[in-house]
From TrEMBL:
UniProt entry tagged with the keyword Signal: yes
This protein's record includes keyword Lyase: no
Name under which the protein is recorded: Cupin type-1 domain-containing protein
Polar residues bias (residue ranges): 75-88
Keywords: Metal-binding, Signal
Signal peptide: 1-23
Region feature Disordered, mapped onto this chain: 63-104
Gene3D superfamilies for the chain: Jelly Rolls
Cited NCBIfam families: bicupin_oxalic
Amino acid sequence: MAWLKSSLALTFLLLSAVTVTCALSDAQVDEWLRSRDSALKPLTLTRRDASGIKPRHLRPYAPVKRDITPPDVGQVSTFNGDPQPSRNGNGGLFSGDDTNHPIDVQNPDNVAGPPTDSGVVPNLKWSFSLSHTRLLKGGWVREQAITDLPPSVDFAAAELRLAPNAYRELHWHRVAEWGYILNGTGRISAIDETGRSFISDVVGPRNGNDPDIYYFPPGVPHSIQALDEGLEILILFTDGNFDRLGTTFMLSDWLARTPLQIVAQNFGLNVSDLQNIPKADPYIVPATVPPPPLGHAGDGAPKSPVGTVPSPYVFSLSKQPRQQAKGGWVKIQDSATNFPVSKQVASALVFVEPNGLRELHWHVKDEWLYIIHGHGRATAFAGGSTSRTFDFQAGDTGVFPNSYGHYIKNLSPTEPLIFLEIFKDERFVDFSATQWLALTPPQVVADLLNISVATVQKFSKDKQVIVA
């Protein structure tokens, strides 16, 4: 009973101290506690940070200041400090460190999107920085497949880096392969189904010029080698589920899975000639002998008795004129106009000037997007009063599904926004919202949008593509 009375007295003392002073710092109590356990620290019942304990899920509160001023026209939220899920009196503050602040800073429209966002639109964005990077002798590779970005049904992608003179081993695919040279110089070689050969150098952007692209039809065996600068490529494959079995076929892997006696008989060799062939595919192979330098692709290359491929697998963007617009320019490549071999992939290289806008439009095929440079913003309209806004940086990929209305805005006042639009189609097709309204009877548009006929008549009858 004496022990219980002492405990009750102590509890009363603690509660009294908290009620009156919101803290307990009593020398006699401290001494009593230490007499029971010398390792105990002085007891403090104030906020944990005042006692020297750093809370895991709490951080100092700072007033949030946004640039959203009435009326809210859907502009980007900017914050004094970390983005917060609060806009126009809706939402509230994060309760602590229960969010990834660097990702929030890059994606303010995920945190506090415009009030026009509505409904549920699946994630349409993936950053290669989130992909696993395979480190190999002679380079690295990282991929984006349908498991990373489920709406990307038509395309899977990879960023491939080859060290100087290293090469991607001989292989072929069940699907078509399209490549954009991000940096460096390289050499590709291939044959078609009749045995006609092809070899060409490819270069990345240099001296202000745009780079090369290439295309291999399904089944075409090929190789890719870096020259003395090394080589970095964005590669697309015309199947989002690219990693499934039966998509890529490596030559060394095939031979390793075939009885050696059969391999020797096939090539007209002795088994002893093949004792050192790889037992597993290396994916990337460091070169033992440097290839001929840039501009000498044909030096020492074998000549096919049936000639060369009549439709080149390489297209030089630097030689294609720009389609100028008021807010930038575009270069379109497809098999219907200028890249005949590229039967399954149509593409556009788009340059949007600072503060410019890729106009409101839609496509009849899924659009696969890759940001080369800059910082952009896009809203995907999925129909049925449903939309979602995304922020994009260099290295991001995205998908706008078939017929989703969208735009892409350059958010920088000083830097251009450069990106690729890719489609699994033989022809590039888009529909302009402005052109559509300009070519519709003006009174119909005026009645629908509740604007004047004079305003409707200001709309451009020509496709703008990019708006300043």
